[in-house]
Design brief:
By secondary structure, this protein is an alpha/beta fold. The chain is built from 20 helices and 12 strands.
């Protein structure tokens, strides 16, 4: 039995650059937006460096969460000649600068973890500023900008005053001696968050996480900085998740849909899911069908989105040949009678082959490793195989428990689940039942199997939304 969790990764909403950089390595250009006033200041420093033939010193004053680190560490996205280097907070500035070699690129040396400290003595600050002044005047620092981020006025004022005493206008310039960094415009907050959520959470949207447009807009309006906005978004998501989880105390399960159809619907399933976890895409589901269920759910799209997220709702495609092999190999007496009545052959010695086919599916991949892998695409079924499968569907239309039981046995044989039950109700006195209730090392999974001779994207969307709504009503989350 696999020890890997069969659920999606938790929602990631970084409110600090360090976390964002770890999660979105190589993808920051799709998230970060240019802060033009700050870029203009960098351009001014570049020009000044060229004219004076020496490096520069920049005191960057901005509130905590304004995006100073993000701006400085993604500067190369907008100024390709720049290369940002961190000067760690525990490093000696004098020793660090003394060890720097002459660079062909413009080096932006950021003094980390010294933004708000007020415990520095004047002698310490003077020593650092003397080292900075000497470095930017040297050949080694001729193409370097040393940046001191500050998020308090007292530290900024002390640094400016001492810098003027030590280096005069050549160190801090002829103006006020510092630059006010305000970060992205408020109008950019929501687009940035949308791109961040989608990039780090397999294409998730605000509605997938239970957030209404009004709630997100209010958070943006009230946030003093982009970091503060992300903190508010994080709180909104936790609140939405908690609203569902309080109702799931008796059974915290997952809800997965398996589509087995006579036509190849792998592409249709892929169009309704997002990322490597096969997670449902709420917006695509809602726009893929015009069934009555959608009109009902449109009154609370945020609720259906967070319900799908908390329940880890997924959709998988089960190939025709795999479904047929499982039915033949894992029959019980009842299913044997039904299959023989349809003229279908049985293959009780074909368990190994059926399990091998099962292990090649996305369903097995997520059970075993938590996400879809690169699967080997099997051959397409011929007319006879499709005809035989459609006879199985005829059985399922009147008695799907018998075929679902065969699938449950195959999942156990493949060591994807520990045990299972069929036709288990949702509790709360409701008649609606789950096709397969599977027990795994990471908790129960309710599997709904959609047996169809032929189906479509709209039908899959309607089926999935109906099952999700039924569960939401069963736990009292949807009215």
């Amino acid at each position: 039995m696999s020890d890997h969790p069969a659920a999606s990764e938790p929602v990631v909403v970084p409110d600090r650059f360090e976390s964002l950089a770890r999660r979105a390595e190589g993808r920051l250009n799709g998230i970060v937006v240019p802060v033009q006033p700050a870029l203009d200041e960098i351009d001014r420093l570049f020009a000044r460096m060229g004219q004076a033939d020496r490096g520069a010193f920049l005191i960057l004053r901005g509130e905590s969460g304004a995006g100073k680190s993000t701006f400085l560490h993604t500067l190369n996205l907008y100024r390709t000649e720049a290369h940002t280097v961190s000067v760690p907070g525990d490093a000696s500035i004098r020793e660090f600068l003394a060890a720097r070699r002459k660079s062909v690129q413009v080096e932006v040396l950021v003094l980390e973890e010294r933004e708000a400290a007020t415990s520095f003595s004047d002698p310490e600050l003077e020593d650092w500023l003397h080292a900075i002044n000497g470095f930017i005047r040297s050949e080694r620092g001729r193409r370097a900008i040393v940046v001191w981020p500050c998020n308090t006025d007292p530290l900024r004022d002390r640094v400016v005053a001492l810098a003027r005493t030590i280096g005069g206008e050549s160190l801090v310039g002829t103006g006020k001696g510092w630059f006010a960094f305000t970060g992205p415009e408020k109008s950019e907050y929501i687009p940035i968050a949308e791109k961040t959520l989608a990039t780090l959470n397999q294409g998730a949207t605000f509605s997938d996480l239970g957030l209404t447009a009004d709630a997100v807009q209010e958070a943006a309006n009230n946030a003093p900085t982009i970091g503060g906005f992300f903190s508010r978004v994080h709180d909104l998501i936790l609140s939405a998740e908690n609203a569902v989880e309080k109702l799931l105390r008796q059974e915290k399960c997952r809800l997965w849909v398996v589509v087995a159809a006579g036509n190849d619907v792998a592409a249709e399933v892929a169009a309704l899911t997002r990322g490597r976890y096969a997670a449902i895409d709420t917006e695509r589901l809602m726009t893929s069908t015009e069934a009555n269920i959608v009109a009902d759910l449109k009154t609370y799209p945020d609720k259906i989105g967070i319900l799908g997220t908390v329940l880890d709702a997924k959709i998988f495609h089960m190939p025709v040949l795999t479904a047929s092999a499982i039915a033949r190999a894992f029959t019980d007496p009842q299913l044997k009678i039904l299959m023989r009545s349809k003229g279908l052959s049985l293959k009780p010695d074909g368990k190994k082959q059926a399990v091998e086919r099962l292990l090649q599916t996305d369903l097995a991949s997520v059970f075993r490793a938590g996400s879809q892998g690169l699967l080997t695409r099997g051959k397409k079924p011929g007319p006879e195989s499709v005809e035989a499968f459609q006879k199985l569907v005829e059985i399922a239309s009147n008695n799907d428990a018998a075929i679902n039981r065969a699938l449950g046995k195959a999942l156990v044989e493949a060591e994807l689940i520990q045990s299972f039950e069929v036709e288990q109700d949702f509790g709360s006195g409701l008649i609606r039942r789950t096709d397969i209730l599977a027990s795994t090392t990471t908790g129960p999974v309710r599997i709904e199997v959609m047996w169809r001779k032929s189906t479509s994207r709209a039908a899959i969307a309607n089926y999935t939304l109906t099952k999700l709504a039924n569960y939401g009503r069963a736990i009292g989350f949807l009215s």
